[in-house]
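hi!! sorry for the late reply, been swamped w classes. u asked for the two structures so here they r. pasted raw, havent cleaned anything up. first the sequence of the first protein and right below it the tokens
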Amino acid sequence: MPQTRIDEAVRRILRVKFELGLFENPMPNAALKSKIGLPESRQVALQAAQESMTLLKNTDDLLPLAKDRKVLVTGPTADSLVSLNNGWTYVWQGSEESLYPKDRLTIRRAIEAKAGAANVTYLPGTKITRGPGPSNSTSTNVEVEVDIQAAVRAARCR
């Protein structure tokens, strides 16, 4: 990449920071911290998520699911608050699951709450792990893969 391209990108970033006044007042207003995580913010986030969902096909009127319908929830992030919130929300890089609010539901727990835990089979499919060390200096590794067909069979047997 030519140095001129890098210089132009840096110039644009610095211009925005200048226009926002970040060189005169680089620290955020501490009083605004009390506004993070308010119920109003959660409601707006929920509305945005609901409005962004797209149902591609509802074959045989499968949806909405019947209360006794069996559901397979799969994917290594389906039971993770870290993945729902992502980095820089509650903690640096968002990697400390124990620091997230205990009253929030993961995708898995939300589906169990709606469909009934007895109707839900959860299989992560893979396991995402980090090596030892600070979360911002260690890479993420996919460690284990599982048999998806076995997951489907397990869900059908419940």
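now the second protein. again sequence first, tokens right under
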Amino acid sequence: MLGQPGAPYHLEFTRAHGHVAGAAPTADNLLVFYLPDDGAWNDAVARMKRAAMSRCHPSTPIGIETG
């Protein structure tokens, strides 16, 4: 986990234990970025859509639960 002390966000890289991750991008190579509120999240999603990024569906239960 990476982040600035006191910042309302952190950056987390995930990997399944016992699973060798292949070359990115795949559903197994996820970059998880938590934002402080729904407005910030919606703004970020809009920017990613404008940049022609597409949504991938998580392969882990936590990713499915939290989106």
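hope this helps!! also noticed smth abt the second:
The chain has two helices and two strands.
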